[in-house]
Amino acid sequence: MSSESNKQVVLAAIDDTTGRKNQVHRVLAHGDLVVTHATTAVPDGGQAVAFDLWQITDGRITGHWGDQEPLVEQTANGHTQVDGVAVLDATADTDTTRKVAEDTVRTILVNNDFSDLERYLAGESYIQHNPRFADGISGLAAALGELAKSGHSLKYSDVLDVVAERNFAYVRSAGVFAGTDFVFHDLFRVADGRAVEHWDVMVPREGA
Asked: How many Cα atoms occupy the beta-carbon half-sphere of 190 within 13 Å?
């Protein structure tokens, strides 16, 4: 089946499969994998932002991994966790986007190499949707530095999945935050060879 067909399989089944009402903001697919970025209502009446990774085989969902964290009103960057560009750029090269996103994660977050952030991120034009971090590479560097000073260091250990389509790439990783095993879901928008926008969800790893 085509990527578009796989997307439709997921969108038709997402509410029943997750057991929640989803407002999908972004969806991308490559091969047998589909990624959705959505907001959803939670039992206490609030909202959460969710990333879900789906595996499709012969028109049926055969695998699903997903996590969510609360949607917050006040963020360090003034953006929400779901706003920003949502349209795929039909002129963008998927393989290039995938490489940029994976290299960004492996260099900065797995290897903790901050020596040349502007090679991977679009300088002070880098748009951040993680509610804890300000925009720009200065915002990211400052936040990571403060986390390290407070003993709440952030380090990825392994890239689990990468799904790219046109100018968007999703990376699911494992790692440690503040001494606890976490799963990290990162979505990047790529332009001119660098990440220009970023959304994420990070949650403690089940069974850790």
From this structure: 28
Radius of gyration of the chain (CA): 16
CATH 3.10.450.50 spans which residues of the chain?
Answer: 3-70, 94-204
Ranges assigned E (strand) in 90-193: 127-128, 154-165, 168-177, 180-191
**Separation between Cα atoms, residue 155 and residue 178, nearest integer Å:** 9
Beta-carbon-side half-sphere exposure of residue 131 (alpha carbons within 13 Å): 14
Architecture of domain 94-204: Roll (3.10)
Query: Is 3.10.450.50 the CATH number for 3-70?
Result: yes
* Phi, psi (rounded to 5 degrees) for 120: -105, -30
Segment-wise mean pLDDT, segments of 10 residues, the chain, 208 residues: 95 96 97 98 90 97 97 96 98 98 97 94 98 95 86 91 98 95 98 98 81
CA angle 64, 68, 119 (to 5 degrees): 90
85-90-95-99 Cα dihedral, nearest 10 degrees: -20
